[in-house]
Design brief:
Layout: H1 13-26, E1 32-33, H2 34-41, H3 46-58, E2 62-66, E3 71-75, H4 77-90, E4 96-103, E5 107-113, E6 119-125, E7 130-131, H5 132-135, H6 139-144, H7 147-170, E8 178-182, E9 185-189, E10 194-195, H8 205-221, E11 224-225, E12 234-240, H9 255-259, E13 260-266, E14 273-274, H10 280-299, H11 310-319, H12 325-331, H13 336-348, E15 378-379, H14 395-400, E16 403-404
Antiparallel strand pairs: 1-3, 2-3, 4-5, 4-16, 5-6, 6-9, 7-15, 8-9, 10-12, 11-14, 12-13
Helix pairs in contact: 1-2, 1-3, 1-4, 7-12, 7-13, 8-10, 8-11
The chain binds adenosine-5'-triphosphate and magnesium ion.
């Protein structure tokens, strides 16, 4: 289920009102009866509404469902995508849609552009989409899932991610700039960097390792545990190191490495938990161990310093507490109740973050890792296996292929 924005330019404002009517009706109807759609769209003259319904159904934004009691429609993921895109466009936050650069288990990542031409990232949360791996254990659950729950849960994931990204950014953490959130989507700044997973050589692994451990401790000092801190969710920006200027390189090969500083940027926050969470220690240790394991396997680096342990993090927090961002996020509207609902749903549908994803670097020695990421088969909303998508097209490529949208 990829974002296909092509049809959006052909939709009229009436079509969007009818689509919003189906969305509103889905909050308490699994199948929204046609007369209710007419009523909720608030348009006079039924024939226009029926024309819109047929356009929306043809474009697969809504799907006709024959119920035992009545016929009606349900909103498809595409319909929700269009409603969110339309809102972002109206708020002048997105002008055009480019390439999809990532298909995660629970989200799609799309490059979009602002009217100024600057590129941004649109992350579309798709919590109802279950990987092939988890579909087996969740078959019964999936059969009974309803439109309302995936829409609501994906929205919660977007709200949570946006709230945490904002709080982190405002407190000096290296994360993308959160720009907007609408329904199940967020718009953020594009980081011109690759995930650590794709970096084959790090000049000074000890330095990067200790920087990453410091980030884990710093998050804890602000009351947070990332919960999915791993090589997929850490982007590595290459910046020129001002301190290195003037230093004579040891040899020509090292010249570039010497002058370049690797700056980690943290992404992907739907699994973030408070340091007071019942399983906080487990999440903390998992984050630390993910990095330890990865550095050992990929860079053959093992730190002489043990830990950090959860006890270290707690001690650090007591000695020098930062602002409690877990509390701030709750106050900003992503309530504790929402957090609990989202966590329960994620557990139920088998969301385990990138850390739980099957890795193709599980084998012992894999210095030559230029291969593509694991290609899991996804099942879209209609139960059809999805096409596989390779990892990232280059960003340059995507900018060339930006599609114009009509507001
Ligand atoms: N702001 C950004 N700038 C550049 N690239 C990004 C940005 N956000 C995401 N990406 C790219 O998309 C990939 C997936 O993003 P992210 O980790 O947020 O989603 P995900 O892993 O699909 O989420 P989930 O773990 O919930 O399924 C990243 O590994 C990165 O390559
Ligand atoms: Mg991720």
């Amino acid at each position: 289920m990829k974002l296909d924005a092509k049809a959006i330019r052909y939709l009229t404002s009436e079509d969007f009102r009818v689509l919003a009517g189906v969305e509103a009706g889905s909050r308490n109807h699994e199948v929204v009866p046609t007369p209710l759609i007419v009523q909720l769209s608030g348009l006079r003259g039924g024939s226009g509404v029926h024309r819109s319904i047929s356009v929306l159904a043809k474009t697969n934004l809504i799907a006709k469902v024959k119920n035992a009691k009545y016929d009606g429609y349900r909103l498809a993921y595409g319909g929700l995508d269009y409603l969110a895109l339309n809102a972002h466009q109206k708020q002048k936050c997105i002008y055009s849609v480019g390439n999809q650069i990532g298909v995660g288990k629970e989200s799609d990542i799309v490059v979009v552009a602002h009217s100024s031409g600057s590129q941004r990232i649109l992350k579309i949360h798709r919590l109802g989409r279950i990987s092939f791996r988890t579909v087996k254990t969740n078959r019964d659950y999936l059969r009974h899932r309803n439109t309302g729950s995936w829409m609501y849960m994906s929205r919660l994931a977007a709200m949570k991610e946006f709230a945490f990204m904002k709080a982190l950014r405002e407190n000096g953490f290296s994360v993308p700039e959160p720009i907007a959130q609408n329904r199940h989507t967020i718009v953020m700044s594009l980081i011109d960097a690759f995930p650590l997973r794709q970096i084959s050589k790090v000049p000074r692994p000890a330095e990067l390792y200790s920087e990453l451990m410091d980030i884990i401790l710093e998050l804890a000092r602000f009351g947070l545990i990332h919960g999915d801190f791993n090589e997929f969710n850490i982007l590595i920006k290459e910046e020129e190191d001002p301190d290195a200027k003037g230093k004579a390189p040891a040899n020509v090969d090292d010249e570039n490495d010497e002058n370049i500083r690797l700056v980690p940027v943290l992404i992907d926050f739907p699994q973030m938990v408070s340091i007071d969470h019942a399983n906080a220690e487990m999440y903390f240790d998992r984050d630390v161990n993910c990095i330890k394991r990865y550095f050992q396997r990929k860079f053959h680096f093992v730190s002489d310093v043990p830990g950090p342990s959860f006890a270290d993090a707690k001690k650090n927090l007591l000695k020098n507490p930062g602002k409690r961002l877990d509390v701030e996020v709750e106050a900003s509207g992503f309530s504790r109740k929402m957090a609990r609902e989202l966590e329960a749903y994620m557990k139920e549908v088998g969301v385990d973050g990138d850390a739980g994803a099957p890795r193709d670097d599980e084998e012992e020695d894999d210095d030559s890792e230029e291969e593509e990421d694991g290609s899991e088969e996804d099942h879209s909303d209609d139960g059809q296996p999805e096409e596989e998508t390779g990892p990232s097209d280059s960003l340059d490529d995507s900018s060339r292929r930006l599609e114009e949208l009509r507001v």
